[in-house]
């Protein structure tokens, strides 16, 4: 977006752009979210910044009226595969808190000096400033949403000392931590347990179908899911964690961050949105920023659904599906290594068969140190799979050997993948591994790094979804009841017209395939000539 496009967005107070850029006003020394209800400043007094950290470094403080830190993050970090995007994914996961700038730089293959120069040029702030802004955002969330002691908030947000925490909050928000806590419109009552409850901000619309996606793949004892909730145990750098997320229509006042027009409560999810409520049953406070970041990635809460739906809805094959399920999300991954194992187990079998195989494999996992709510185990580590997988896995010997080889490589760190990868690096790491092909690489890219433009052309469910949607849509107008199949004269078979959002198109196709009655959609002649080679875990 250029200057005037952004200026028009702030003049319209467009909530879609909250978190995607920040507006700083020279005459007030304040930076705001684009939808700030304050009077629109004169254009000559406005500077736009890609990140809140850049605004901090330029000497601006956060607006007390619109709370720019209380917004979803930018979808750019998944859309961008450059160093800046990869670095931001790792910073949000807490890499600097754990390993410092040197650790971040080594993961990206640069020196710390080079990385600082790149990020300063691309984002207006260096890695330390970006991490500091992330800590400030986490601290604000905890201050207004929980009754945690201030010292606990400081260390949970990633600060090395209470003094550093106090100084950062005062500099960023122009308030002490106690004063910032007092700004919460509704204060949570003292909890009866040690759990934390937070509301997760997101951009509307939000399609809760992601809960069903996770529920049908949930491994008993490790995960539990319904159409509106998901819970699981998780291994994090400093210990085990347990959390649940619920999509609820009930009023949730504990984390209301002010009031909207007419004095109505405005939640982090949006002025009229149903809140997503995160309950953390157990976690080492040092792992809290990483857990928050991974949960947000799991539910794709930083996506821009209006932009995505606008592109997908223009395709006649997808228009009806987009209208029926606006705001579809791309499920992420809580653990990149676990996701690779799950993808390999399910890459040539159905969802139900994959879940059965993974349930058997889960016996290799250790009991969780944070049990509760029927969740008592952890997904097995690569080392545990390499040791016990041969006895637990069923199927062709070659497939089992491939899984064991990859698990061994992960356990020995000869294979390393994570949120800092991009599609080329994932391909270079995974394709040489036995039993890994282009489908697996694409699926891992979708789930681990949130790659938005993956189209799994040889996926059986994708092809079934195309056939299911083609029964009721016209290739040109998308009108129901035509019985026509999409014409190659107007639309490409790889959905390139909706790029860079083909991963979201894949989600619509998977949903259509799952909803279609079995054997109700006969394959087209072209589909019969090109039968898919995979019945995938999708």
From TrEMBL:
Keyword Ubl conjugation on entry: no
Catalytic reaction equation(s): Hydrolysis of alkylated DNA, releasing 3-methyladenine, 3-methylguanine, 7-methylguanine and 7-methyladenine
Keyword tags: Activator, DNA damage, DNA repair, DNA-binding, Metal-binding, Methyltransferase, Transcription, Transcription regulation, Transferase, Zinc
Location of the HTH araC/xylS-type domain: 85-183
GO biological processes: base-excision repair, AP site formation; DNA alkylation repair; methylation
Ranges of Low complexity composition bias in the record: 526-538
SUPFAM superfamilies: Ada DNA repair protein, N-terminal domain (N-Ada 10) (SSF57884), DNA-glycosylase (SSF48150), Homeodomain-like (SSF46689), TATA-box binding protein-like (SSF55945)
EC number: 3.2.2.21
Identification of the protein by name: DNA-3-methyladenine glycosylase II
């Amino acid at each position: 977006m250029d200057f005037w496009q952004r200026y028009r967005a702030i003049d319209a107070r467009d909530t879609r752009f909250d978190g995607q850029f920040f507006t700083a006003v020279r005459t007030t020394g304040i930076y705001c979210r684009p939808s700030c209800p304050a009077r629109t400043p004169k254009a000559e007094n406005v500077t736009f910044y890609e990140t809140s950290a850049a605004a901090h470094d330029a000497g601006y403080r956060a607006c007390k009226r619109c709370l720019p830190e209380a917004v979803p993050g930018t979808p750019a970090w998944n859309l961008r595969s450059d160093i800046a995007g990869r670095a931001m994914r790792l910073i949000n996961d807490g890499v600097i808190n754990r390993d410092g700038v040197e650790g971040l730089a080594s993961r990206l293959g640069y020196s710390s000096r080079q990385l600082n120069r790149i990020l300063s040029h691309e984002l207006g702030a260096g890695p330390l400033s970006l991490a500091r802004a992330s800590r400030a955002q986490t601290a604000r969330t905890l201050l207004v949403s929980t009754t945690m002691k201030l010292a606990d908030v400081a260390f949970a947000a990633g600060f090395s000392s209470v003094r550093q925490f106090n100084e950062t909050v005062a500099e960023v928000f122009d308030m002490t931590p106690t004063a910032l806590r007092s700004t919460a419109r509704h204060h949570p009552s003292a909890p009866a347990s040690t759990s934390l409850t937070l509301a997760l901000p997101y951009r509307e619309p939000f399609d809760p179908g992601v809960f069903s996606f996770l529920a049908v793949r949930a491994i008993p004892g490790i995960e539990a899911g319904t159409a509106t909730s998901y819970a699981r145990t998780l291994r994090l750098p400093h210990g085990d964690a347990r959390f649940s997320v619920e999509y609820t229509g009930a009023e949730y006042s504990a984390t209301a961050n002010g009031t909207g027009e007419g004095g109505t409560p405005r939640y982090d999810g949006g002025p009229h949105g149903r809140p997503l409520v995160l309950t953390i049953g157990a976690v080492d406070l040092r792992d809290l920023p990483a857990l928050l970041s991974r949960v947000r990635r799991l539910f794709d809460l930083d996506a821009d659904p209006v932009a995505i739906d606008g592109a997908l809805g223009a395709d006649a094959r997808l228009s009806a599906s987009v209208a029926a399920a606006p705001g579809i999300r791309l499920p992420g991954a809580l653990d990149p290594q676990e996701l690779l194992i799950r993808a390999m187990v399910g890459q040539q079998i159905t969802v139900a068969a994959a879940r059965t195989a993974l349930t058997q494999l889960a016996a290799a996992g250790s009991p969780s140190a944070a049990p509760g709510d029927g969740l008592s185990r952890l997904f097995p580590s690569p080392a545990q799979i390499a040791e016990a997988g041969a006895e637990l896995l069923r199927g062709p010997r070659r497939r089992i050997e491939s899984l064991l080889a990859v698990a061994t490589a992960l356990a020995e760190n000869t294979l390393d993948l994570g949120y800092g990868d991009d599609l080329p690096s994932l391909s270079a790491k995974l394709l040489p591994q036995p039993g890994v092909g282009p489908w697996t690489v694409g699926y891992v890219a979708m789930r681990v790094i949130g790659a938005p433009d993956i189209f799994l052309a040889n996926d059986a469910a994708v092809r079934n979804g195309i056939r299911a949607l083609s029964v009721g849509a016209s290739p040109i107008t998308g009108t129901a009841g035509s019985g026509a199949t999409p014409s190659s004269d107007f639309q490409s078979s790889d959905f390139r017209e909706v790029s860079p959002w083909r991963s979201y198109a894949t989600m619509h196709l998977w949903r259509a395939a799952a909803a279609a009655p079995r054997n109700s959609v006969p394959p087209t002649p072209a589909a019969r000539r090109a039968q898919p080679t995979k019945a995938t875990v999708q």
